[in-house]
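I am writing to request your help with a piece of structural work I have in hand. I set the record out below, with my sincere thanks for your time.
___
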Amino acid sequence: MKVVTQTGEPRDAYGPARIVVTGGAGFIGSALIRQLVRETDACVINLDKLTYAGDLTSLAEAADSPRYQFERADICDSEAVRRVFERHRPTAVMHLAAESHVDRSIDGPADFIRTNISGTFTLLEAALRHWKNGDGEIKARFRFLHVSTDEVFGSLGETGYFTEETPYAPNSPYSASNAASDNLVRAWHHTYGLPTIMTNCSNNYGPYQFPEKLVPLVIRNALAGKPLPIYGTGENTRDWLFVDDHAHALRAVLEDGDAGSSYNIGGHNEKTNLEVVHAICAVLDELRPQASGKSHTSLITFVTDRPGHDRRYAIDASKIGRELGWTPREDFASGLRKTVEWYLANPSWHASGHDQGERLGLSRAAG
């Protein structure tokens, strides 16, 4: 991994980076850690509480590496976080620990406020103390990368894209908690000088995703011959990003992004939910056809829409391409095929998840 300093030293002036990845047992965090261990010389510390969506089996590939360590801790626990910083002396934090499912935020917003806002505050305070009191290497190299979502920007109309300058307009407890944490990160840079960087990404998909999300839920249900639930008319539109492409983008931002800046990360794959489900069914029809001979699309069922469901998200990722040279390697077709093939080869992953496929997000909704 390249070394970025803030005080003018050559990039190779220090040894391997020491990176704390919060939420490293989650979907995006585990993809990032696997990639860091496989493709760089960085020492990686996975700080994770292991909530319902965290699973260390997703890190089997990295677990035996001498450059990987796991610290089970809650990011809201200031003493535990302080001990991690003191023990490992990180040169970077990549903060991905967050409650992340919109439907769950509707039913139980308190966990989102606690983890996404209070947890980010706790990490920022520990990082600021670590950076201000650190030695020359820490002062030169340290960075705090905060990984957020495009949902903080609200909903788009039929045209247009989210840019880094788009005003925030969150519409769910999930996106509101992320917007608050983004603002904390920005404030800690401008008020205290902490070298922070922020990213906002579009919808991720790929191997090891927890089965409450659309792509793994549809794959799992289709293989079991169960209904494939689609909110409303299925016209809600998202930009889809293959998780390994996202991990590459995060590494590029950490290495070469400007402190105090934000970068949008998108896959240039705008699809309606109905198009996504049809695409999954087409791959399954080819690779694992139903015994009845019917297409998996026969299982599609339209259900009551999610309260406050944003109509459209679309990312303008030109800044990260222009400034850092990142572009996604997978288009939606290639990434989706890799994803479906992985789930077919790993049936125990989606069969044993804690999620039972129940409908969430209605218990507290108005009306």
Notes: The chain has a mean pLDDT of 91. The first strand starts at residue 18 and ends at 22. Residues 109-133 form the longest helix (25 residues).
